[in-house]
Automatic annotation (TrEMBL):
Segments forming domain DNA mismatch repair MutH/Type II restriction enzyme Sau3AI: 72-173
UniProt lineage: Bacteria, Bacillati, Bacillota, Tissierellia, Tissierellales
Chain's gene name: sau3AIR
Keyword Hydrolase recorded: yes
Transmembrane region(s): none
This enzyme's EC code(s): 3.1.21.4
NCBIfam families: restrict_Sau3AI (NF040973)
One MF annotation (Gene Ontology) recorded for this entry: DNA binding
Protein name: Type-2 restriction enzyme Sau3AI
Enzyme class name: hydrolase
Length: 489
């Protein structure tokens, strides 16, 4: 087969891949006169391109690079693509954010998890490691206004070979996934269980289920994947260098057990009051910054930058939880305001809320009030259980979306009274409700303005043409309280 590189040599493969920079997938097809004439003779050039240009098709662009550039037939075998060189080829998209930064557009699928085999696998003998040890990353720019996917352009080439702390965490993640399968809980697997290497759902049909070894409960098919947050860190720091490096929490290569290390560090300050901690770590016991309680956790961990490198890679969010003297949590947890016209276009499987709680792990730093001070009670890593995500969270999200689609119903008693609506409230939900997220309230209903907020700044357009105060999803405070009750004893 015609090849301009040595498929047994990693450096030769990498050097040849560099020539992909600045090329579109259409350019690759235009330049190749070999594959369709010598390998797959029954398919015409036009038929081949039509099968890949559909924007709604998932995947496939990697096959173009495999077949039309590296000249080997795409397959789904467990070995690395270039097995003699121990190199796996992965073609993956990135995007430009509204603030000008770049991010990976999606997680990187590595290989399918075989529930029946993983229970007897060692990490370094697994199909995951076979494809993880040397990943040839081909990053292309995803642009929403491009209709023909073949016009996407390849801009970055990088050989990712996990080592050091990254490799130790990935290995630990593998064993966490394996242990859950051994325990007969493959149906409870979630990407939030782990740090860098996740167990992502992988099926064209969300209702597909497959057997697992130690339980009669069928589980969703899943694949090993490098999380979107990890791939974003690789892109920003290892490839482009366009982001400031964050401080590391683990500064000693001999430390084992990242989560245990973090919790032990924070728990050293258990039962110490907030003003004493502020004085020690901020040199100001009267500090008033809004994020001082969550920031305190990073300071305890020795992190002076905006975030910790490990938290950035693992998509871990630090959330301070302050319990009042009466053991109640005053505030629910808010998330960024959404645009209703974008929300109503989403389906559950690809919704922002589903992705967020599936991929995010939280570090709850818990304080309890006694007299006039809050005392540190400890910390807890937490991710939302799959049963909650696919149960109440899904139902309550869908209820809100349906109301927006069908038309929000407003109750107006008097112009100077708060305007009521029929969106899900904390009082009639278990996990998620909808509330305003704006400086001031404002509505425009049937052409009449209510409230003292600014229309452009404080309101959001609804499908029926009315406008209401910007809304966001809130995680119910009593639900959060249930997740941390073991830390309040």
């Amino acid at each position: 087969m015609y090849k301009r590189y040595n498929s047994k040599d990693k450096e030769s493969i990498y050097k040849y891949a560099q020539e992909l920079k600045g090329k579109t997938f259409k350019d690759i097809c235009d330049a190749d006169k070999y594959f369709l004439t010598e390998v797959v003779k029954e398919v015409t050039e036009e038929e081949y391109r039509i099968s890949y240009e559909n924007k709604n098709r998932k995947g496939g662009l990697g096959e173009i690079v495999e077949e039309r550039y590296f000249h080997y037939k795409a397959d789904n075998i467990s070995e690395a693509d270039f097995s003699d060189a121990q190199v796996e080829l992965k073609v993956t998209p990135y995007k430009i954010n509204k603030n000008g930064t770049i991010s990976a557009k999606e997680r990187l699928i590595i290989s399918m998890i075989n529930y029946m085999k993983i229970i007897n696998m060692d990490f370094y003998n697994s199909n995951a490691w076979e494809k993880l040890k040397n990943i040839l990353l081909v990053y292309y720019l995803w642009e929403p206004n491009i209709e023909d996917r073949l016009d996407y352009m390849i801009n970055y080439i990088y050989m990712l070979s996990p080592e050091g702390e990254d490799l130790r965490i990935i290995e630990s993640d593998f064993y966490k996934i394996r242990q859950k399968v051994i325990d007969g809980k493959a149906h409870e697997l979630s990407e939030g269980d782990t740090l860098y290497l996740g167990a992502a759902t992988k099926s064209s049909n969300s209702k597909n289920r497959t057997p697992q070894p130690n339980s009669k409960i069928l589980a969703k098919p899943r694949a090993f994947s490098l999380k979107t947050s990890y791939m974003t860190y690789v892109l920003r720091n290892y490839i482009t260098g366009g982001s400031e490096r964050e401080d590391k929490i683990l500064k000693d290569d001999t430390v084992l057990g990242f989560e245990e290390y973090v919790l032990n560090k924070i728990n050293q300050y258990k039962n110490i009051k907030d003003t004493d901690l502020f004085k020690e770590f901020f040199d100001d016991e009267n500090i008033k910054s809004k994020n001082r309680y969550s920031r305190l956790a990073l300071e305890i961990l020795g992190v002076k930058t905006k975030n910790a490198e490990e938290f950035e890679k693992a998509n871990i969010e630090v959330k301070a939880v302050r319990i009042e003297s009466d053991k109640k949590l005053r505030e629910s947890m808010s998330f960024p305001a959404f645009k209703t016209m974008e929300l109503i276009k989403q389906n559950w499987e690809e919704s922002d809320i589903n992705n967020y709680f599936t991929e995010t792990k939280f570090l709850f730093v818990i304080y309890k009030k006694k007299q006039n001070n809050y005392y540190l009670k400890g910390a807890k890593f937490w991710n939302m259980p799959v049963d909650d995500i696919e149960g109440s969270l899904r139902e309550e999200w869908q209820r809100a979306v349906n109301i927006f689609r069908e038309g929000v119903k407003f109750t107006i008693k008097r112009p100077d009274y708060p305007i009521r609506n029929n969106l899900p409230k904390k009082s009639n939900t278990k996990i998620l409700h909808v509330r305003p997220h704006a400086r001031k309230g404002a509505h425009v209903i049937n052409g009449i303005k209510y409230g003292n907020g600014e229309i452009e700044r404080d309101t959001d357009l609804l499908p029926d043409g009315n406008r209401m105060t910007k809304q966001c999803f809130w995680l119910n405070n009593d639900y959060i309280l249930k997740q941390i009750k073991d830390k309040l004893k």
